[in-house]
Amino acid sequence: MSEIVLEDLTKRFGDVTAVDRLSATIKSREFFVVVGPTACGKTTLLRLIAGLLEPDEGSILFDGQPVTQLGARQRGVRMVFQDYALYPHMKVFDEKRYSNLSFPLKLRKTETSAIKKIVNGLANRLQIKKILYKRKPHQLSAGQKQKVAMGRALAVPPKILLMDEPLSNLDPQSRLHARDEVRKLHDELKVTTVYVTHDLAEAFTLADRMAVMRDGSFIQTGTPQEIQKKPIDGFVESFVHSYKELSKGLFDA
Ligand SMILES: Nc1ncnc2c1ncn2[C@@H]1O[C@H](COP(=O)(O)OP(=O)(O)OP(=O)(O)O)[C@@H](O)[C@H]1O
Ligand SMILES: [Mg+2]
């Protein structure tokens, strides 16, 4: 429902150019994955799309409409942050009050019975046990926090969903399960998704299309198959090579 166009986007922090004349089109309903080494600008890019940062140059359009001047609340975007950004003083879930999982639903004045149904359904899919509901974020493990952050982002499906390494703290088995659920939820909700990860297996298996990012720009964009078949340079080739080695290891095991 929402195409994202990024035109010559640049964001500097003092001497550091975190995002450097980046242009891309993310198609409506696409699951678009960004991979790249640490500090290449992935989080900065998501924050620009979300409206949490203002670009120094360039523009962002949703469905052809410029949104660069709009604040985060007006953009219809939700972000799962790398550091969770849960509400520290709220419980995981309280059907009657504002809580982490019910927050976006309460804001919309959703009925309690509907809130319960939606949250329990999501919690079930993301394997968030009911025993955790009455806890506050500081009483959760990092992986549990990530799952709650994802549940909160999906409680009211946004037009655009941005996810910043949302599964990085889960053990391999939970991660595989969550990866499948994320993809299934995307296929059901058809939300345009930009998903940042370091995990090559996650990138190559989840993406409709993906971008390899380096030093603030996308150096290659394409389907996982295109990128595997025709890496544009040695840097992308090394990514593809690592992925193939990794998959080999998995199949040998
Ligand atoms: N608020 C800020 N002030 C100054 N520099 C910043 C700020 N935010 C990011 N940077 C710098 O911008 C560059 C890109 O940072 P960013 O967080 O976007 O990287 P990243 O690709 O998300 O890395 P990681 O994979 O480690 O999360 C880095 O050099 C970082 O130090
Ligand atoms: Mg980051």
Q: Could you say which overall geometry the principal axes of the C-alpha atoms support?
A: globular
Low-pLDDT stretches are none
- What is the number of E strands? 10
Bound molecules: adenosine-5'-triphosphate, magnesium ion
Beta-strand percentage? 15-25%
Judged by helices, strands and strand pairing, the structural class is alpha/beta
Strand arrangement across the biggest beta sheet: 6-7-8-3-9-10
Q: Please, could you describe this protein's structure?
A:
By secondary structure, the protein is an alpha/beta fold. It is 36% helix and 24% strand. The chain contains eight helices and ten strands. It has helices spanning 42-50, 103-107, 112-125, 142-155, 172-189, 200-206, 224-229, 234-252, and strands spanning 4-13, 16-26, 31-35, 57-62, 65-66, 77-80, 160-164, 192-197, 209-214, 217-222. The strands form two sheets. Strands 6-7-8-3-9-10 form a six-stranded mixed β-sheet, sandwiched between helices. The protein has a four-stranded antiparallel β-sheet with strand order 2-1-4-5, covered by helices on one side. A hairpin with a 2-residue loop joins strand 1 and strand 2. The longest helix is centred in the last third of the chain and has 19 residues, at 234-252. The protein is globular. It starts with a strand and ends with a helix. The model has no long low-confidence stretch (mean pLDDT 92). It binds adenosine-5'-triphosphate and magnesium ion. Residues 42-43, 82, 164 line the site of magnesium ion. Adenosine-5'-triphosphate (ATP) binds at residues 13, 16, 18, 38-44, 82.
